């Protein structure tokens, strides 16, 4: 065996050992992370709870705004309607950090809403996420309602359905699709890190969410908590997807899709 | 315009795609009259019904309702059953309730009319079923019953029994005849000469967006004077003989 080949083999074996050691560390951390989850670690539960409160609150408010707004743009003909659709679609892709920055400026002591003292509170995070999610809800609602309206328009005109009844009927008849829309909004909110980091500040026991905690704990090398939160976050994502698929299936079964 | 005309159209035209799929149509529907509209595929029958119902605006000519304009109030005195019935994503009962509520009927009156419509459509036992899982025939029966529940003075029907089996066809025809007997004027688009005879006293034959021939149903079908009607009827007989 030539010395060169010998050298290469030696390096390979060493490299493999390193990987195995790293993997070992990973599996140990994951094991401890699962321990945290199963043991119901108080800090973990606090963080998950706050995350859910903030994101569910944001989705609720975003739906209150986005559902009627999207439905109105989807169902009514008015000047500037096409532009409104474009704006809604464009706002769907708002970068979270920019939204965080703007909300920060609004809520900071020198900002127009500084007197409210909301910066670095869960309320500020809910506001930021609402701004992120409302356009998603509105834009997707517009699409859903517009498609449904195309199907219903003549029947509604024939019955002489008034504008308010028309709007509520379209929203109600699109209920399964719209629940999926809300789930998509929740998925975006709960996984978002930039906006809540800026306006929440990632303060322990106050504004620390799953995503900001993962970012912090990872950088501190506290992999157990980061991994445990990661597992919970992935589980939530899977649950949201599962719920959306179940909804679609039952909607199809009832011919309500 | 005859004093008794419920609905009358003069010089009705509709423009689309650079052409006029409906062009210069005159039609009168007296109160309680029953009119069949026939003609080949693409002759403009569905467009004519939409024009008469005020769902689309004519490029020329006009539709008068009781001598006045065809406004929302006039449309509310009519009901239309579309070629493909539109069912809301709700139960059979909720579909009926929605139509009645849209027509401003509420409370006990609405409940009673809903009940009556379910009976009429022979959908008792299916009232809580999602309307869109009903069979095509059941949906068509529901669509007719829903239109009748609105107590219209004029019922517009666009091929109400296309793609239905003989039993469902009979059921739908029975509903239409019942409406007719209670004084509702009907305009029925059909490809079935037998149905035209059973459901209508008058017949308007359309060809390429124009009225080729109009008269009593028996006269037009037994002794057609226009070339399009004659050709159409011969084609029909030919198909019938081949079966
Ligand atoms: N919105 C539209 N734009 C352009 N062309 C149209 C439009 N609506 C209908 N047409 C055309 O007008 C003609 C008449 O259509 P219509 O639906 O009234 O036919 P019909 O007599 O009801 O036919 P069928 O027996 O197949 O139902 C067709 O050639 C159709 O392609
Ligand atoms: Mg047609």
Total strands of chain A: the figure is 0
Look at the structure and name the CATH superfamily of chain B: P-loop containing nucleotide triphosphate hydrolases
Classify the beta-strand content of chain A into a percent band: under 5%
Helical proportion of chain B, percent range:
40-55%
Number of domains of chain A: 2
- Helices and strands of chain A, in order, run as HHHHHHHHHH
> Roughly what is the average pLDDT of chain B, rounded to an integer?
92
CATH class of the largest domain in chain A: Mainly Alpha
Number of helices of chain A: 10
Q: Please compute the radius of gyration of chain B using only Cα atoms.
A: 18 Å
Structural class of chain A: mainly alpha
Runs of chain A in which pLDDT lies below 50 for 5 or more consecutive residues are none
In this structure, how is the largest beta sheet of chain A organized?
none
Radius of gyration of chain A: 24 Å
Residue share in helix of chain A: over 70%
Oligomer: heterodimer
What is the domain total for the residues of chain B? 1
At CATH level 2, the architecture of chain B is 3-Layer(aba) Sandwich
How many E strands of chain B? Answer: 10
Give the biggest sheet of chain B: 6 strands, mixed
Describe what you observe in this structure.
The complex is a heterodimer of chains A (257) and B (243). Chain A has 257 residues and is mostly helical. Chain A folds into 2 domains: 1-39; 42-253, Orthogonal Bundle (MetI-like fold), CATH 1.10.3720.10. Chain A has 10 helices and no strands. In chain A, helix 2 packs parallel to helix 5 (122-159), helix 3 (81-91) runs antiparallel to helix 5 and helix 4 packs across helix 5 (122-159). Chain A is globular, with a radius of gyration of 24 Å. The termini of chain A are far apart. Chain B is an alpha/beta fold and 243 residues long. Chain B has one domain (5-242): P-loop containing nucleotide triphosphate hydrolases (Rossmann fold), CATH 3.40.50.300. Helices cover 40% and strands 27% of the residues of chain B. Chain B has 9 helices and 10 strands. In chain B, strand 4 and strand 5 (68-69) form a beta hairpin. In chain B, helix 4 (107-120) packs antiparallel against helix 5 (136-149). Chain B is globular. At the A-B interface, helix 5 and helix 6 of A face helix 2, strand 6 and helix 3 of B.
